[in-house]
Amino acid sequence: MNIGAAAGQSGLSSKTIRYYEDIGLLTADRAANGYRDYSNEGVYRLRFVQRSRSLGFSIEERRKLLSLYTDRDRASADVKAIATEKLGEIDRHPRRQIPHHAASPTPPSLRWQATVRPAPAPVSRGTSALQR
Fold this sequence. Notes:
By secondary structure, the protein is mainly α. Helix content is 59%, strand content 3%. The protein contains 8 helices and 2 strands. It has helices at 3-10, 14-22, 40-54, 59-70, 76-92, 94-97, 100-103, 108-116; strands spanning 29-30, 36-37. Strands 1-2 form a two-stranded antiparallel ribbon. A hairpin with a 5-residue loop joins β1 and β2. The N and C termini lie far apart (59 Å). The model is unreliable at 100-119 (pLDDT under 50).
């Protein structure tokens, strides 16, 4: 699938995906025409990166977790150690570690609507001027 479809399925923007590729965090296969081509596994990795970002993992922490994911000889204790360390950081500094948008129940694309648009007027159940 192309980068637009992968972005839609992963929750990352196309620009963010390109940035992660530029810094070597992720790679994409290339189609015959040179365009990025994402497999289901590639989209899974994009989702993983998006979720770990929303939980406050740094780029280097995400890089380490991805490398552990691809290393079939790794010990599960390695992954647990990174997660436990991050949980300790979150417990010590909960507001500083998790971005506000990660904890918000309103999706970012709709958040502006909740603050800009007024609530609709309640509908009256009585008779209207047209019914009289």
